[in-house]
């Protein structure tokens, strides 16, 4: 590990020489500066790990130097220890207020100064280790996510293509049976639509820019989401809508809103496992989010199914994390949360005390700086 590097700034030569001699004996590299401007130039040329900075200097004092360092992203993280002859409480508060991490008072006690420097250098080392660990964790997480998505896509598309090929073979072998051909063609169409749905979901996940919005009636958006869900699961009447806030206008993107809420309804539907359609009941409730900083719509989608599987609780928003074995599932929650966050909202899932799960979606009523399509 390279020797730590400290910048010592003082307009009195003797003070710089005393500190330099003491620190270098401990294996610390010392850079010297004798004015505020020299200090800024030294930091720009050779970024130190720590700065010992005299407060009382002509032309540009230590307070001004520290303020300038704090104003720049690349120097803000460098810890500054002030050296001052002022021992008043007000003086210390002023220095801490502009970003200093510690104070040393004159006349300088070299042993005390060394102890304070070593303490701050330990903090610097720990902080760098944490930053490096966070970077490596982020890289590992990205790699794992890419692997999961790639494996999930390949598995789902291979299965769906197998379905398509199988039904096409049935169509060929039963070309003289119109009813069978029609049924098999319908199955092929459903499989193709599932493939299209996966591709659309993937496309929505890579959107980085904020989508354009328009003003919509909430009732129209909810109706569209419910109809999309009913087409997906091929049933009607499973969703009970309890709209407590009536019909109001909200800023949204119709495709994003409907696909997100439809995905949550599908997730609630699938939570019932193999129960008959008539025994699967979903409640969609609307209200205003309490204690929100801006007016925010809260949508609660409740089911009485099997609840959140403990084995996937911490990964349930990861792509293709699922306990279901149906071909083409595993991205609904991922896509829904991504879509809602793109609209400045969010999504959380909770267990219900009486059994089942509630998905709580938040969506702002008025999007700041709304862009119209």
Automatic annotation (TrEMBL):
Keyword Cytoplasm: no
SUPFAM superfamilies on file: ATPase domain of HSP90 chaperone/DNA topoisomerase II/histidine kinase, CheY-like, Homodimeric domain of signal transducing histidine kinase
Catalytic activity: ATP + protein L-histidine = ADP + protein N-phospho-L-histidine
Residues in Response regulatory domain copies: 4-117
Keywords carried by this UniProt record: Kinase, Phosphoprotein, Transferase
EC number: 2.7.13.3
Domain Histidine kinase/HSP90-like ATPase: 252-367
Membrane-spanning parts: none
Example of a GO MF term: kinase activity
Entries under Pfam families matching the protein: HATPase_c, HisKA, Response_reg
Gene3D superfamilies: 1.10.287.130, 3.40.50.2300, Histidine kinase-like ATPase, C-terminal domain
PANTHER family, alphabetized: HYBRID SIGNAL TRANSDUCTION HISTIDINE KINASE C, TWO-COMPONENT HISTIDINE KINASE
Protein name per Swiss-Prot or TrEMBL: histidine kinase
Native organism taxonomy: Bacteria, Pseudomonadati, Verrucomicrobiota, Opitutia, Opitutales
């Amino acid at each position: 590990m390279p020797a730590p590097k400290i910048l010592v700034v003082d307009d009195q030569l003797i003070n710089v020489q005393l500190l330099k001699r003491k620190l270098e004996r401990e294996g610390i590299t010392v850079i010297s500066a004798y004015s505020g401007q020299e200090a800024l130039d030294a930091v720009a040329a050779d970024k130190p790990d720590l700065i010992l900075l005299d407060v009382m200097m002509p032309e540009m004092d230590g307070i001004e130097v520290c303020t300038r360092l704090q104003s720049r992203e690349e120097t803000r993280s460098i810890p500054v220890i002030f050296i001052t002859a002022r021992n008043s409480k007000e003086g210390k508060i002023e220095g801490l207020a502009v970003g200093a991490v510690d104070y040393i008072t004159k006349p300088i006690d070299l042993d005390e100064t060394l102890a304070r420097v070593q303490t701050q250098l330990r903090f610097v080392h720990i902080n760098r280790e944490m930053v490096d660990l966070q970077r490596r964790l982020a890289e590992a997480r990205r790699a794992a996510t890419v692997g999961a998505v790639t494996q999930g896509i390949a598995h789902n598309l291979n299965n769906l293509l197998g379905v398509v090929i199988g039904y096409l073979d049935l169509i060929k072998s039963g070309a003289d049976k119109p009813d069978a051909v029609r049924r098999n063609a319908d199955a092929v169409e459903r499989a193709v639509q599932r493939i299209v749905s996966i591709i659309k979901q993937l496309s929505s996940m890579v959107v980085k820019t904020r989508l354009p919005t328009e003003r919509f009636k909430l009732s129209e958006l909810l109706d569209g989401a419910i109809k999309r869900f009913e087409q997906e699961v091929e049933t009607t009447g499973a969703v009970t809508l309890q709209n407590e806030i009536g019909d109001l206008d909200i800023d949204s993107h119709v495709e994003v809103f409907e696909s997100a809420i439809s995905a949550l309804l599908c997730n609630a539907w699938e939570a019932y496992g193999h129960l008959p359609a008539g025994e699967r009941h979903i409640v969609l409730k609307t209200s205003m989010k309490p204690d929100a900083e801006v007016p925010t719509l809260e949508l609660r989608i409740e089911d009485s199914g099997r609840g959140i599987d403990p084995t996937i609780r911490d990964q349930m928003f990861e792509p293709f994390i699922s306990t279901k074995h149906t071909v083409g599932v595993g991205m609904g929650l991922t896509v829904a949360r991504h879509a809602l966050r793109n609209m400045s909202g969010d999504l959380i899932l909770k267990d219900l005390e009486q059994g089942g799960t509630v998905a709580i979606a938040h969506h702002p009523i008025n999007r700041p700086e709304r862009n119209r399509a």
